[in-house]
Every structure is written in structure tokens, then in C-alpha cells.
Specification:
By secondary structure, the protein is mainly β. It contains 2 helices and 25 strands. The strands form 7 sheets. The chain has a 4-stranded antiparallel sheet, with no helix packed on it. It has a 4-stranded antiparallel sheet with strand order 7-8-9-10, with no helix packed on it.
């Protein structure tokens, strides 16, 4: 994982916290980091000195020595993607990247290897406000950026044939999270009410919990969702109030079984943070789905929760 202040990369075992610095290259104020190419490369995003231009640096990682100390030669060397990329997503197999930037008032979508090589344009859209996901090899999803009073829509792109298809929408404050199978879509509206949309039957089903899809993660078989669910939801204009930092949540971790509709509160982070509340984002599971990882939006600390 990347330290935001310096861009240094750290590593640790998940079953035994033994934090060690892995790289020494300093990239100040990294906002986002994406690991790719089976964790042999990293994309780090940050603002240039002018405070306006978004830079996206693609670096090749040095050889990983688990539990080993770094040498003075553990520097990241690489290249840059186009400036002012507005959105990035990584392919399920970790080998490729999809990114969007604006050119001549159009949104341009590019797929490339995680190293930044072998670029292929698959999108040109006069609408420029998109959020992407790459849930499976044949599907990249594009959701219009959400706001309380505006209707949102979800589209699919097949990167192999470059075909864009409208799925559903006309929902105010729409945010989404597509399952790995691509058949189920977790979505929320401006009331934070979660539902599941079935792309085969065109039906939707309420889940009975209030949170946002970006505070959730699917398991690999598309049967279970883990979500950070606020203990209390204030009466505000969502998702804008949360995005803008006007509202901060104190979450519990819930497990939702999509097959039978059951929900279970599996953890209260307040109990293992000694009263420090957690507003969880960027949820992810390890390969064997034994651990749930998330970042506390309040202070950017990385957490793990053993779920099995």
C-alpha cells in the first residue's frame, strides 16, 4: 500500500502485522494508487505544483522480497499517462487499465496494459462526467457522476467490440457497483437506499440497508456483498453532502446474502478502534475471502477485518 504523504510503498503480512518500507521513491501527496500486472506495477495519481493538473505516474515495482528489508536501490521508475485523467479502473485479472480523459470537449476512454503500453481507444463521448468499473473481461461499466437532484444512468462497454449499451437509469443520485458476473448491479439513490438490479429479468430488489455502493464490495461468486453501513444517516442531500465532506459516517460492517436476502451485522469497528469511528471506503477482499480491507475516510488509515 502507498503512503499518501510521500508516495513510499509499504508491505506487511495480513496475519502478522510487520510493516516494512518497500520503495524509497518520494512522490508527495499521492491521492490515489492502483496496483496492476500481478502487483509488478503501480499507478499513482497526484496534483502537479500548479494545484490543478492531475498527473498519473505508471511505475514498475522492484522485485518483492516478502518480509525482507529494502535496499537503497528500491526506486520506482516509469512513465506518465496523459494529464488530467478523470477516472481509472483496473481489469479483474490485474493486467490492464481503463482510463478516461477529456479532449476537445469529448470524453476519451482508453484501455492499456498496466504498464501503460498497447493503448486502444474504446470510447468517445460528448458527455464527459463518467465513473468506470471493470467487473469482468467482457464488460466495463460507465455510470454518470451522481448528484442529489440529477438523474443518473448506467451503461456497459464491451472492450473487445467497443459497443456501448444503456442498461438502466433515470434515478436521482445514482451510484452503482456491478457484480463480477455482470448480471447483478448494486445501486443506490439520493436516499441511500440500496437495491439490486438483475440485468436478465430487468427487476430490482431492495436490500433493506442504507449506505452507498462505493462503501461495499462483492465476493467473487456474486452471491454476497460486504458493506460499511452508517449507524445513523442524517437528513442531507446525498451523495453530495458525503462527497463534499459536510457529512461523515460512523459505520458497522454488514454481510448481505443475495441468494436468500439475509443481512447480518458482522462487526462494529468502534469496538476494535477503541471508540474511533470509521467511515469506510475502498472495500476489498483478499483472494481467499478471509480478510476484508478498507480505508477510513476520516484519516486515510488502512484497516483489515478477519471475516473467516
Amino acid at each position: 500500500y502507498v503512503e499518501k504523504a510521500t508516495g513510499n510503498i509499504y508491505q506487511t503480512f495480513v496475519d502478522k502485522i510487520d510493516e516494512r518500507k518497500f520503495t524509497t521513491t518520494v512522490i508527495p501527496q499521492v491521492y490515489d494508487a492502483y496496483f496492476g500486472d500481478k502487483n509488478n506495477s503501480v499507478i499513482m495519481r497526484y496534483l502537479k505544483a500548479d494545484g490543478k493538473t492531475i498527473e498519473s505516474f505508471v511505475g514498475k515495482l522492484p522485485k518483492d522480497i516478502l518480509g525482507g528489508d529494502i535496499s537503497n536501490e528500491n526506486e520506482i521508475k516509469g512513465t506518465f499517462l496523459p494529464e488530467n485523467i478523470t477516472d481509472i479502473s483496473i481489469s479483474p485479472d490485474n493486467s490492464s487499465v481503463f482510463y478516461i480523459f477529456n479532449a476537445e470537449n469529448n470524453a476519451i476512454g482508453i484501455t492499456a496494459l498496466s504498464s501503460g503500453d498497447k493503448k486502444n481507444q474504446i470510447l468517445s463521448s460528448s458527455f464527459t462526467e463518467w465513473l468506470s468499473q471493470w467487473p469482468n473481461p467482457r464488460m466495463i461499466t460507465l455510470t454518470t457522476k451522481p448528484s442529489y437532484d440529477f438523474s443518473g444512468f448506467l451503461y456497459y462497454i464491451d472492450p473487445t467490440i467497443k459497443k456501448m449499451t444503456k442498461v438502466f437509469g433515470n434515478i436521482k443520485g445514482l451510484t452503482t457497483l456491478t457484480s463480477p458476473s455482470g448480471k447483478l448491479i448494486l445501486y443506490g439513490d439520493n436516499t441511500l437506499s440500496l437495491r439490486i438490479y438483475n440485468t436478465s429479468t430487468k427487476d430490482s430488489m431492495p436490500l433493506g440497508v442504507k449506505t452507498m455502493p462505493e462503501k461495499c464490495v462483492w465476493n467473487s461468486s456474486s452471491t454476497t456483498i460486504y458493506c460499511a453501513v452508517p449507524k445513523y444517516v442524517q437528513n442531507e442531500k446525498y451523495p453530495d453532502a458525503w462527497y463534499q465532506g459536510e457529512v461523515s459516517f460512523s459505520d458497522d460492517i454488514w454481510k448481505v446474502n443475495i441468494e436468500n436476502g439475509s443481512t447480518e451485522n458482522i462487526a462494529d469497528p468502534d469496538l476494535f478502534t477503541r471508540g474511533e469511528s470509521v467511515d469506510a471506503i475502498k472495500l476489498s477482499l483478499d483472494e481467499n475471502e478471509n480478510y476484508l480491507f478498507f480505508i477510513n475516510k476520516k484519516d486515510s488509515y488502512l484497516w483489515e477485518l478477519k471475516i473467516k
